[in-house]
Amino acid sequence: MRAPLPTGSENILVVRTHYSDDAAWRELRRLMTSPAELFPPEQDFLQLRTVPVDPAWEHTKQGLAQYRAEQHENIEAVDDPSWEGASAAEVRAALADSELCVAFLADAVTMAAPGRWPMLAVDLTPADGEEGEPGEFRLHPDMLHYIHVNMEVGNMYFSDYEYATADAPVRFGDLAPPRG
Fold it and tell me: Residues 82-91: pLDDT tens digits?
């Protein structure tokens, strides 16, 4: 039986579902909670391709840095082995009655790519009559705060991120450069 997940939190929920490498998990947690770990300005934060530096990026980067400095402790990491091997569908089902709009998984794919850390974002928003399965996409942990806050305030929807990554051969964040 799996332990209950927090359902009413405004924190960023990360569920660990793979337990083969505790050192990798500690490094991933450090990256998720470190306000200093940000994308270099020459990288597009959605597709993570090298792009010309946009002067507007510096403002965005400063705003994200300020937000992360204030909120970096707001990651609620579920590190309970009862969630070993859980799928996105299982996490989604466990959070069906929650107030959360997105959850992030540190799964086998995440832990198999140290330095890139492609976490799985899981859509928790009600379908509202839409057809198809709830969405998922991969991202680098640097983007947890950005995605969470934009979804919480209704600035962007999960489908916006999913659409932005739909044509990427490797999903959002998988192309991030390895972290030293």
Answer: 999 999 999 9
